[in-house]
Amino acid sequence: MLSPVLEAAGLDLPGRLRDISFAFEAGAAVAVVGPNGAGKSTLLQVLAGLLHAKGRIRWRGEDLPRIPFLERGRILTWLGQESHADFAYPVKEVVAQGRFAWGDDGRGVEEAMEALDIRHLATRPITELSGGERRRVFLARALATGAPIQLWDEPAANLDVRHALDVLRLARDLAGSGSTLLVTLHDLRNAYRFDRVLVLDQGALVGAGTPAEILTPDLIARVFRVRAEPGAGLGLELPDA
Ligand SMILES: Nc1ncnc2c1ncn2[C@@H]1O[C@H](COP(=O)(O)OP(=O)(O)OP(=O)(O)O)[C@@H](O)[C@H]1O
Description:
The strands form 2 sheets. The protein has a 6-stranded mixed β-sheet with strand order 6-7-8-3-9-10, sandwiched between helices. A 4-stranded antiparallel β-sheet has the order 2-1-4-5, with helices on one face. It has helices at residues 40-47, 69-75, 91-96, 109-115, 131-144, 161-176, 188-191, 211-214, 217-224; strands spanning 4-13, 17-25, 29-33, 54-59, 62-63, 76-79, 149-152, 180-184, 196-201, 204-209. It is of the alpha/beta class. The chain is built from 9 helices and 10 strands. The protein has a domain at 4-83 and 147-224: P-loop containing nucleotide triphosphate hydrolases (Rossmann fold). Helix 4 (109-115) crosses helix 5 (131-144). Adenosine-5'-triphosphate binds next to helix 1.
């Protein structure tokens, strides 16, 4: 078995997370699912070092919170759930902020804008974009970091169906090149595009494994209070998939 690069042990934050442990290897694409208030955003914020919780987080065996700030900025990036922008920076500058931990070297900025289909917006002030366009700018900034741990909180929120599928494919491609991704999702059907799924409920981890193992009708009924009907609904794919 491959050795884990990202390990969490006993993460605990009163009222928000209860004794969460997991370990993922390089190249794992992980969907984090659960009902509203289950703790998904909290978990990503704790991993990103934005919230302090009891327990340990390790990156390649080292205590992640003890790694100096700039070095950590090269290891992980976090995309928050909100896409609000306070300042009217041009889009390209916002994407380039992703290179802060690398001395603002500008590497990968064009490629990230291409991957998120925002090149045509490069000179527009971010405050004058639509919600979905802003989302893609912030995703491009996360991508531009080149960080091997990508923590994305509802990346596809506000995105049209084509751009949402692009983002899910991007997640797969990043995992294919060795990044480890934790991505929160609400549409359980999209969880099947990931290697692994973590199911949170009321702050606790109630399922961890492959989507096929974990997302059983029984678990879905218990956690989400809906009936799962395999094969039902509209299957959407990119045209070349
Ligand atoms: N700033 C905060 N201070 C205290 N408690 C909070 C704060 N933000 C969220 N919570 C609580 O922590 C718990 C987990 O919230 P969290 O935002 O992590 O859930 P989530 O699974 O991401 O939900 P959603 O699907 O609605 O985004 C909830 O009970 C919530 O009320």
